[in-house]
Amino acid sequence: MTAPPSTTLTDHVTGTVNGIGESTVRPDGIPKLQGSFAYASDLETEGMLWAATVRSPHPHARIVDIDPGPALAIGGVHAVLTAEDVPGRLLFGLEHPDQPVLASDVVRYWGEPVAIVAAEDPETARIAAAAVTVEYVVLDPLVDPEEADTRDEVFRRIRIRRGDQDVRGSVVVEGVYEVGMQDQAPLGTEAGLAIPDGEGGVDLYATTQYVHADHSQIVASLDLTAEMVRSHPTGIGGAFGAREDVNLHIHLCMLALYTRRPVKQVYQRSESFTGHVHRHPARLRYRHEADEDGRLVRVEADVLIDGGAYASTTSAVLGNACYFAVGPYKCDNVNVDGVGVRTNNPPCGAMRGFGAVQVCFAHEAQMDRLAAALDMDPLELRRRNALATGDALATTGQRIDTPLPTREVIDSLVAMPMPEDDDSEDPLRLPGGTGLTTERRDVRRGVGYAFGIKNLGFSEGSDDYAQARVLLSPQGAIVETAAIEVGQGLVTVVGQIARSALGIGNVEVRHIDTSRIGSAGSTSASRQTQLTGGAVLAAATALRDRVLTEFAGEYLDDDGVWRDGELVVPYAELASGGWEETTTFRHPPTEEPDENGQGTLHADFAVAGHRAIVDVDVGLGLVRVVRIDTAQDVGKALNPESVRGQIEGGILQGVGLAMMEELIVEGGVIRNPTFTDYLLPTVLDAPDVEALLIEQEGSWGPHGAKGVGEPPTISSTAAVAAAIREATGLALPRVPIRPEHVALEGGV
Amino acid sequence: MDFVVATDLEEALDALGRGALPLAGGTDLMVGVNAGQRPDNVVALRRVRELRQRNGQRIGAGVTWRVIEDEGPRALAQAARTVGSPQIRNAGTLGGNVGTASPAGDGLPFLAAVDAEIELTSREGVRTLRWDEFFTGVKETARRTDELITAVVLPAALPGRQEFAKIGVRNAMVIATVACVVTRADDGTTTVALGSVAPTPIRIPEAEELAKTLSDPGSAALDEFQHLVAAGVRPITDHRSTEEYRRHGAGVLARRLLTRCLREGAA
């Protein structure tokens, strides 16, 4: 493990413009607003062909025959490739290679790729894809997750046994909860361009969160050497977990190598909904037992998540769901039984919150039920059980040795001022919005709280690292990384870190391909600010120290090296000296769980809380989320504006899951793969947000920073549900909460 | 694909006579194209000025939602505001809404509530059909393929009070789960029309009869009114909502709108 870099900064360095702690403007912000930023879907090159994918219309079927003839007969069609044309390993997968690049004998989910086509233009490619004749024998799909569990069709089971099996509490609450299948719905659909290099190799520019993982899977399936494939970062319009897995990457490389032409593809919206993994739907059974004072004595949970047809990250998502099943609370006696099942439903994988979202909805509903059973203030119940630094995580027993300000999050959230009662009859401030359904007198207000916890970085023994390079060039200092900017702001924050460490204001961040730098790991798990940020801090600090030692300088800035108030080496001279530093940063090592699910499985944690204020039209079951207040443990806010951006966006994604975002899957088929029917919150559904950043330094992230991307999504859903329960008195054990769930039990 | 950009009614009717599909704002047709439909003959109507004119109670089929939102009769303007986003409202037209005849068409309950007529023009002449003669099923109408919807004709006198509301799963840009228009004339004549709860827009005569006798917005008979509306609709369960909720929502919405009309009348 690399030693955590020095966090001491000289007075001079902390004065660097656009350094850490400032709300530096994004370098890609104005180009994105003006439309001049090139996303993957904007890429083009001379002589380019367009690809389209032939997909299974059945969730489960045997392929009898694939006839490319009718497609090849169409003018302008250059290739129709099937599983037989995969040069190397047929299977790919982020954790376990179990998914065919193209289905060979059996299709296991609706929309699974069966063949790929390249043609002169996108319309011809789509027509050709429709013309490929595939003969299927339709098989019964396994779509009931409980049945899959019974039939032992599973990706992973987890069994956590902690503490004394005989200890029982005097106050007991039980509940069964359900979470629907949310989609990441990034605005940019999957897109890419593969360019053959003329020597048997290929360069790929495609939507992704993790170029090095793409690269190793592409190399295996193409049966090429690592050097022959270069996977390049490109412009990405959102990800949220949907872009960790391979989708069009291997297809485009195959078509480019086969046709010896550059090949581009852009998924249409409906194809995007089948072309990436989704958030796991979950069924959660809970039993909480407490003593008379409200101390948690025992928690039992059954966690069932549906992984769909292929493994993706189901094993790790299930891990998170189980390890955070109790939430940010202490409890010494915990049993969790988790299963991630295999079905013929759409494959599920990573999405913001990664398993912690589903269980948070359940454990927070349980805490409210327990408070009611105890006749205790639900916030007081949480305070009494709040998990703190030095405590053991209730599930795994891991001693928490980084700052965990659960109590501070609870107290500061409660202390935030409440909004005044709203007596406005403006329909835009009422449930139903422009639909004019509701007047103020139809409305009941509710307030709900929820708190969540999640790991930061990869866990369970992963060798989690990021490599970064800092060099001094005539154009200024350059940061090089293969970490992916998906819109979250990595490009801003690592520049700030480099500026502060070097003392140089002129810093540019360059995203470079897999052949030119080692892995930065995935842009996921809230990890890049800590991991790639940590690597950049270490590289920049080492580079500065080497330069200052070499020239006996006191400090460095844009003019060069200074000593005794004099410039001793001008920057131009430095810039021609070939100064560069490449560093690999690792977070503290973690372990795999033992047979009881115990161990030091996680490197760091973050906690957040949300208070939702909702107006509910009980008669029609319509809801307006008026405001969400939040307090979030951020370690150190390196760019406060970016942190708030993550918080507001993450909350809205949580509101979406609470109120409307669900892929409706019937018999394995997605019924609403469009933005007409997969509803995302509009600006009229977006609550006002007040955010309080809780800064407690001491984490191993750069300057004590923690990842901030996922915590806003974890407990915001649960808080909205709690607020609607408070307004209506209904149990509401499932999200999304639909109008019928409220109105048909709530009366007029 | 054969594509004609008509600049006047003559050209449009010629193209229709040759079997072209009429394209107004494209907010329905292009959704179909994205879903894989490939019409082989299309006539674009946006440059046909005759279709964009409004004369008294005659609204040209090419008048956009954006115009209706500002200038239409109250309940139709309220409906227009709920259509998509500003961009969609600047493209989508009343005639397109009528021609598509979706059960969820936002403009249709108003047309049913005021007994509007649909004007159809072809090479053979002009005919007008009452709304309930025109709408025959889910996305089915009495329009012949050579006929163009040229206007919607409203009655000379519109009821003094008219209210629209629409239930959706979010607060804007949403397909109706239930839409409702209630109108009330000075003599107490009441109409109740709903969308998204039957294959076509429908009226609920039993509820209208009862409403005629009511004048107090606090009347206990509103319970019976709500019940008659809920019993009178014929909704389905699909991925957007359930039959039970649509039935419930229809009753609640109609009751609220009638109450608004009665309150206004009392004020």
Explain what this protein looks like in three dimensions.
The complex is a heterodimer of chains A (748) and B (267). Chain A is an alpha+beta fold and 748 residues long. Chain A has three domains: 10-38 and 465-586, 2-Layer Sandwich (Aldehyde Oxidoreductase, domain 4), CATH 3.30.365; 42-140 and 184-275, Aldehyde Oxidoreductase, domain 3 (Alpha-Beta Complex); 282-458 and 595-743, Aldehyde oxidase/xanthine dehydrogenase, molybdopterin binding domain (Aldehyde Oxidoreductase, domain 4, 2-Layer Sandwich), CATH 3.30.365.10. Helix content of chain A is 26%, strand content 26%. Chain A is built from 19 helices and 31 strands. Chain A is globular and about 75 Å long. Chain B has eleven helices and 14 strands. Chain B has helices at 9-17, 29-34, 65-71, 74-81, 86-91, 94-100, 108-113, 131-134, 205-212, 222-232, 243-266, and strands at residues 2-5, 21-23, 41-44, 54-55, 58-60, 117-122, 125-130, 135-137, 140-141, 148-153, 161-167, 178-184, 190-195, 202-203. Helices cover 36% and strands 23% of the residues of chain B. Chain B has 267 residues and is an alpha+beta fold. Chain A binds chain B through residues 130, 268-270, 428, 431-437, 439, 442, 619-622, 624, 659-660, 664, 666, 671-672, 676-677, 679, 681-685, 738-740, 743-744, 748, and chain B through 31, 34-36, 78, 81-82, 163-175, 177, 226, 239-242, 244-245, 248-249, 252-253, 256.
Short description:
Chain A is α+β, with helices and mostly antiparallel strands and 748 residues long. Chain A is built from 19 helices and 31 strands. Chain A has 3 domains: 10-38 and 465-586, Aldehyde oxidase/xanthine dehydrogenase, molybdopterin binding domain (Aldehyde Oxidoreductase, domain 4, 2-Layer Sandwich), CATH 3.30.365; 42-140 and 184-275, Aldehyde oxidase/xanthine dehydrogenase, a/b hammerhead (Aldehyde Oxidoreductase, domain 3, Alpha-Beta Complex), CATH 3.90.1170.50; 282-458 and 595-743, Aldehyde oxidase/xanthine dehydrogenase, molybdopterin binding domain (Aldehyde Oxidoreductase, domain 4, 2-Layer Sandwich), CATH 3.30.365.
